[in-house]
Amino acid sequence: MKTTSLYGFSTDLAPFAGKPPAEQAALLHAWGNTVVFGGYRDPAFVDAAHRAGLKVYAEYGCFVGQRWWDEVPDSRPVTADGALLDPEDGYHGVNPSLPAVRRERLAALERLLADHEIDGVWLDFIRWPCHWEVPDPALPRTSFDPGTVGRFCRDTGIALPAGDAPALAQAIQDGYAAEWTAWRCEQITSWVAEARAVIDRVRPGATLGLFGVPWRRADRDGAILTVIGQDYPALADAGVDVFSPMVYHRMCGYGPAWVGEVTAAIHAQTGKPVWPIVQSVDMPVPLSSEEYGEVLDVALHHPASDGVLVFTMQGALDKAKLAATRARFGV
Fold first, then answer.
1. Fewer Cβ neighbours under 10 Å: the N or C end of the chain?
2. Residue 169 is assigned to a structural domain of this protein
């Protein structure tokens, strides 16, 4: 049976408000969900979900947040021209190589696993900064601050001449572009491997999932590696159990068939289950229930797919979209 879920459960949503946990879990099951993202902070809901046959997962944001920029200024990436990275549409990307950030994010993950009876964790914002959910995203090259470049030189044994950020960026691009890309990818992969070890120690058997940027190796001149730093085969080797590419087709300017193309590519690279997460939200323009249903069909029935997640539950509560969901989730 394929996994199906409307992502973003909250007791604040109208269908669940005021209902006891058992009724909330029963409604999720009646809609065809097999897993639920959210609600894990309420032990009564978790127990009810488990009794209803639902697994409960938590999303975990890794390298993101204005608080980091405010509290740890070095966490704000530096671009190739020496400027501090600007926020974009409310997104504040964080430098994933900074030791203080890496330690805190692992410690917080351990607390999450220890404190809640969850069945798994999906890592989000597990990348170098990029606001990618648009047809023509900016592709910032980051981070050329002295601390990051120093860590690169220490880890690789490469000696770079002294200089400001633009000079360092040029020296890296001219002579060590492949090494820089590999090192940046390793910052992501190694943290995921550490997260896997934490899960295995604190909550053995829990699933590790990853929300991935939906770019293939050839897209945007290899930006999935050079900009994002997500090396899918390496991440599979690091212990990711399930990949969920965020195939928000309308946001990214594609048609429904693209969902299947990305799903197939990531499954071929990793050999792991792929649960693509598709959009129900009306962004950047209204999404018809017919097109939403077509995307669900592609995601569910593609041979490389082991299920489908929907972003978001709230977006799918439209009467016609919920009917399309239930028809395809088998209820």
1. N
2. no
Total domains present in the chain? 1
CA distance 88 to 142: 15
Question: 24: exposed, middle or buried (C-beta count within 10 Å: 0-12, 13-18, 19+)?
Answer: buried
- Whose structure tokens read 């934490």? 198
Host domain of residue 318: 3-147+184-328
Rounded mean pLDDT of the chain?
Answer: 98
- Burial label for 20, CB within 10 Å (0-12, 13-18, 19+), is exposed
Looking at residue 331, its pLDDT comes to: 67
d(CA 274, CA 294): 18
Q: What is the pLDDT of residues 298-328, one digit of tens each?
A: 999 999 999 999 999 999 999 999 999 999 9
User: What is the per-residue pLDDT across 107-125, written as a single tens digit (0 to 9) for each?
Assistant: 999 999 999 999 999 999 9
Q: Rounded to a whole number, what is the distance in angstroms from the first to the last CA of the chain? A: 14
Which one-letter DSSP state was computed for residue 85? P
Q: Answer whether residue 179 is part of any domain.
A: no
Residue 104 lies in a domain: yes
- pTM (predicted TM-score): 0.98
The per-residue pLDDT for 330 is 87
CA dihedral sign, ordered 78, 79, 81, 85: negative
Q: What is the CATH number of the domain that holds 51?
A: 3.20.20.80
